[in-house]
Design goal:
The protein is of the alpha+beta class and 305 residues long. It is built from 9 helices and 9 strands. A 7-stranded antiparallel beta sheet has the order 1-2-3-4-5-6-9. A hairpin with a 6-residue loop joins strand 4 and strand 5. Helix 1 runs parallel beside helix 5 and helix 3 runs antiparallel to helix 5. It is globular and about 60 Å long.
Length: 305
């Protein structure tokens, strides 16, 4: 019988394959760089980086399975009792930066951790979630995104979506800008509810829900015309994405602190971004609508598109 780590690995690799297959169906002309790598301290992974597609300007779908002699600070800040533990961490991470500014940027990550404490006690948990960062948001899409997140959570507990939605709103927040990164979704860590089998099933559902919901939204918006001004605004808002990932994102910090592969860790960065000094949107514009209504937590399920 397979142990927990082996089962988690096989499930995550299968999810990685479904994600890459779906992207190729939606964006068959995209340029792909597939890179398998090994880590000196133990483990390795596969980077599946993409660019210059008809839909996705830059993105990637990564799988990693790494081991180490000491959990990095980013993994123990909420669990100090695991300081000094050896670990195994595996996961699938996804980021899509579309070319068309009417298609949102989207991100997902699902991961499995095992730690062996200095007292030789084994501890395991799952984490992950997904979030969306629109540039020219559509209320219908925001409601659909959050209904999809709720539907993924509800079979595993009616309390999960409200809890994980709030966690996501708090996590993907830029304090120095006083705004959320986008419309959120769900985010969770230290998850082992219902035992290993049930937790693994939930993680799989989260990954598939992200895939199906993102491509449904992208299909609706990908052919909408845009101009240079809208593309420039997308570039400006991409700057916020960079700021969050470098300053606040625990996944980025974990990868760098654990001597991970820098190219794979920074795959999440957009291809280009802009920073304009002291810029603000004009009242009454679509850009102003984003700032007024989409960069703060909202109860999306009770909105009427």
């Amino acid at each position: 019988m397979m142990n927990e780590a082996t089962r988690a690995r096989e499930t995550l690799i299968a999810l990685h394959n479904r994600l890459t297959s779906s992207l190729l169906q939606k964006d068959p002309n995209i340029q792909i760089t597939e890179d398998e790598w090994k880590r000196e301290e133990g483990g390795g992974g596969k980077t599946w980086a993409v660019k210059n597609g008809d839909l996705i300007e830059k993105g990637g779908i990564n799988f990693s399975d790494v081991r180490g002699n000491q959990l990095p600070e980013a993994a123990t800040q909420n669990r100090p009792e695991l300081t000094g533990s050896t670990f195994r961490a595996m996961g699938v991470s996804v980021v899509f930066h579309p070319d068309n500014p009417h298609v949102p940027t989207a991100h997902a990550n699902v991961r499995y951790f095992e730690a062996i404490t200095p007292e030789n006690k084994k501890v395991w948990w799952f984490g992950g979630g997904f979030d969306m960062t629109p540039y020219y948001p559509v209320l219908e899409d925001a409601v659909f995104w959050h209904k999809s997140a709720r539907d993924a959570c509800e079979p595993y507990g009616t309390n999960l979506y409200p809890k994980f939605k709030e966690w996501c709103d708090q996590y993907f927040y830029l304090p120095h800008r006083k705004e959320t990164r986008g419309i959120g979704g769900i985010f969770f860590d230290d998850y082992n509810q219902g035992g290993f089998d049930r937790s693994l099933e939930f993680i799989n559902s989260v990954g598939d829900t992200f895939k199906d919901a993102f491509f449904e939204i992208a299909d609706k918006r990908r052919d909408k015309e845009f101009d240079h001004k809208q593309k420039s605004f997308q570039q400006y808002r991409r700057g916020r994405y960079v700021e969050f990932n470098l300053v606040y994102d625990r996944g980025t910090h974990f990868g760098l602190q654990s001597n991970g592969r820098t190219e794979s860790i920074l795959m999440s960065m957009p291809p280009t971004a802009e920073w304009s000094y002291d810029w603000s949107p004009k009242e009454g514009t679509e850009e102003h609508n984003l700032y007024l209504h989409y960069l703060k937590p909202r109860d999306w399920l009770n909105e009427n598109p």
